[in-house]
Give the backbone structure.
Amino acid sequence: MRIDLHCHSTASDGTDTPAELVRNAAAAGLDVVALTDHDTTRGYAEARAALPAGLTLVTGAELSCRIGGVSMHMLAYLFDPEEPELLAERELVRDDRVPRARAMVARLQELGVPVTWEQVARIAGDGSVGRPHVATALVELGVVPSVDDAFTTDWLADGGRAHVEKHETDPFEAIRLVKGAGGVTVFAHPGASKRGRTVPESAIAEMAAAGLDGIEVDHMDHDADTRGRLRGLAADLGLLVTGSSDYHGSRKTVALGEYTTDPEVYGEITRRATGAFPVPGTGGI
């Protein structure tokens, strides 16, 4: 089985629609794909309707969190999307995205970049607006050659000249909320140091004690040494180890299925979840 548990669609900051994502996942030879858009479940219905035969959909989300002044992302799988507490927190995070993006546009304008809110809104479309949309605007304007190059301290990285903080959930609260909604939690790309400061291992140990289920180890932003260190940490803490592409369509160079999760780990995730269940494809539309 080939299992990719971290993918984005146009419901947040990917370039594939949810329907295109599942079709492309099947074409890439995946058996299981997770839809984990940022702080939203809006792409679920379209993905389910288009799900090809032979492909299983795992519903999820990537939750924006912050601990000790460090931003981090928490992957949440197979939770009940209508559970009131988690739904309210996701809406609180999403509602802060537009004013934050507008503030980043204003800072870029102060830095002499001729970006406009209208340009960023056009790029975001119906998606949950975020930094990748602002980064894409910088690429369009020729300010940086790629989206990744926008995520530096010169521009949009944490602490960067045009960075603006947003409301982010305390990760311990995120774990509690996801568990309360019957879901499973995995700390996304915990060693991605090129994105900015990373969470110390002592804090990951505290999250494990609070019910964190796993950490994402095999990821494009982790080199071999980082993966080895994280595998050892997971073994010490009794955490599941996942691997995922963090696919964003054409917004990033990584391909669907470039990194994958072991079938036994996937099985354990589905066993732990009670809020929702994987959806088998029946042929789509």
